[in-house]
């Protein structure tokens, strides 16, 4: 600990300063977010939307599926439109048509080109003009624009209602009829969509040509185009990234790395006897595999809805499992199974590292298991039930589906999960305490594991920061604290430290070297990662400096990935260090796969959309999905599977271990993921990006593009990759089933060898 004191100091300083800035940004977002009007009225005094309707419309949309049913400001799912872009385009066309009919007695398309140009210039002035009165909280619209708003309102009321004439469009959007049966919700929904569109086009007070969302989405009709800042900071971020990568390579070349130690002649963990609490973690890993199978199944159904919005190969599946539910489960289970694998790993290694089994530790591990199982089953069932039976806004927020991507479970379940995570931190701390007290070369690594665990437990509290009436910009701010920092931040630090601990326990790396390397790696990662959170918030009603900070620091997130290949190669060498290391071959190869997908998924695909100018055109398109699949499963999923295999190695009969099944699992998962991403999602994302750049975001997300022959062909081209990937998950399930059978066979054999009297006593 003394030898790394300076590194620990730097880590503390960077974390304090970064979170201070991130907190300050939050206060600025709160103060400058797009104002929510009390009323929207025409200059003739006609009330279009009354007080409270914008917020109720937000609640109604979230209860109807929210970010699983299209997007607002680019965040959510990709089959239905981005409603802010869709409204903006529809309102613009309606207003042009009203002017053309009123003034020329012709449709807009029949007008001469000069006359069309005149009306488009007037449209820009009308739509970009900010008529919000801060004193009375009223937005005032011209009579013609008010008429256009009413026309678009009728469309959305019919779409989210039961109008049979829009059934084809609902199928293309993968949404069921009667999404909002409550008439008050149905009338309020357009108010929220109008407001999100108004904020996207209206100039900020005192600014010209700059909307509250920094001119997102791209809409040529109102000259919503990228700001100069988006381009300048994109260029600056690329320059900074190249310079930082060069600096890291120079530092790595100048630093003399200590060679790995001579590995032990035999497996140091071969004779380790699992404690009762360690044995109790085994069921966690089998549940993880079950969640993987469920998540993959829901992913297949969700992807298919992009072609048949209401059916699964002709079967009307959407009646009992709508797209909003299948996608919710798919995204939520991805986080849950990865988190469960890492939580169980922590509980497994704590006694192994400290050599101490706290009193009642097994009981605590079992209680936590059943509590987590209750939360997973309960939140999934209530979300499904609430969506099918339209239980309403209050039910959705508190018990059902909140409609927020990756954080969809109701508030009651979030509170229970937060308590469960704090309980996990307590169990982990009890197990690690003796090792933390005892001076050793590994103590720094153990401290990093525990600190990361404390952050995992503590930062989940950010899911409790928003309420049902919170401003949408602030919901997005806090949601990304959770999704980016919790999932992409502290879990990665935790997992990396755990892997380093495992390698030191196996005698494959020096503890002192691992100590310094992990702290330095954490410094580099969090230096870019904490403020890099802001790249998710470029266009969500935030101040323009968010683009500058987010662009520069998200570029730094890519820098550590430059040396991933070196670390992956060294891990591959370690897998061949001694004959006994082959027992952990597939765990180590999973860690190597993490390095590959970190470079490809998080690095190449992530940075391809993270610069402001790129994200301006590609936010909410399939390039985001390509990055998400490659990074979430490729990095965090493979980490989870690698940790799972390591723990099961010490918990299972070595005779039942099947390297053949693991070999098939490993290659099928990675090849299937690569096929899925590069044959389907990336081409689809590029095709949509071209549509977004040439005609606007509304067009890239329209049925004309989403259900074009090319896009539907690309959806079908996912099938080969999905099949290969699914075979990989089946191999993992068969591997687990083999371990279960071996355990039962061993128990039967043991019981049959015990005399009858002894059995009776037992």
UniProtKB/TrEMBL annotation:
Chain ranges of the Nitric oxide reductase subunit B cytochrome c-like domain: 37-218
Membrane-spanning parts: 230-251, 284-307, 329-351, 363-385, 412-433, 445-466, 478-504, 516-539, 545-566, 586-609, 629-652, 664-687, 723-741
SUPFAM superfamilies assigned to the protein according to its UniProt record, in alphabetical order: Cytochrome c oxidase subunit I-like (SSF81442)
Presence of keyword Cell membrane: no
Keyword Lipid metabolism: no
Alphabetized UniProt keyword annotations: Membrane, Transmembrane, Transmembrane helix
Pfam families given in the database record: COX1 (PF00115), NorB_cytochrome_c-like (PF22085)
Domain of life: Bacteria
Stated name of the protein: Nitric-oxide reductase large subunit
Organism: Undibacterium aquatile
Lineage of source species: Bacteria, Pseudomonadati, Pseudomonadota, Betaproteobacteria, Burkholderiales
